[in-house]
Amino acid sequence: MQDLLPEPDFRLFAVTVRFPQGLAQQVPFTKVQPGVYDLRHYGATHYHLRSEETSTLLLQLFKRYRLEAIPMPDILEQFAAETIDELLKELPVEKRLKGLPAEERLKGLSAEERLKGLSLSEFLAELSEEKRAALAKLLKDNGFPPASKK
């Protein structure tokens, strides 16, 4: 039994074919079912980051577990949603809008909001001949003289 590895050599999980008597004398085991023991609290308090490549998301999840000490499956869905929200807040607008068609980007905006910052000449320049003719007719029907052509 004296051949046990030192505590710092243990990671977050372990598999063994026999009950680890030596470790059980040093660390409290929580029995989950016959032959399965939960050592998450031990792992959470003794874990040290060993690699710079450790996933940021995994590290955030682990830190939250360490703080809250609640079962992972209960918070995983909530954590994923919160993480997505946080990432979206940090992303530049261009990245958030990338890949969205114009119709999706404009959804929920009023006509005034969609035209905000657009000059009349820019607006008219984007109208097709058909739409310009319809606009001229609408203005004429409502008592406005049509714009003179140069």
Could you explain how this protein is built, in words?
A two-stranded antiparallel sheet has the order 1-2. The longest helix is centred in the middle third of the chain and has 19 residues, at 72-90. The protein has a domain at 110-141. The protein contains nine helices and two strands; from the N terminus they run αββαααααααα. The protein is mainly alpha-helical. The protein has helices at residues 21-26, 40-46, 56-68, 72-90, 93-97, 102-106, 111-115, 120-125, 129-141, and strands at 30-33, 36-38.
Task: For this entry, give a set of tags.
2 strands, 5% strand, mainly alpha, 150 residues
Question: What's the quick description here?
Answer:
With 150 residues, the protein is mostly helical.
Topology:
Layout: H1 21-26, E1 30-33, E2 36-38, H2 40-46, H3 56-68, H4 72-90, H5 93-97, H6 102-106, H7 111-115, H8 120-125, H9 129-141
Antiparallel strand pairs: 1-2
Number of E-state strands = 2
Overall body shape:
rod-shaped
Order of helices and strands: HEEHHHHHHHH
Query: Strand order within the widest sheet?
Result: 1-2
Q: Could you give a short account of the major beta sheet?
A: 2 strands, antiparallel
Q: What percent of residues adopt helix (DSSP H or I)?
A: 40-55%
* Cα radius of gyration in angstroms: 32 Å
Given the structure, what is the number of helices? 9
Strand content: under 5%
Q: Name the poorly predicted regions.
A: none
Task: Name the structural class.
Answer: mainly alpha
What is the end-to-end distance? 99 Å
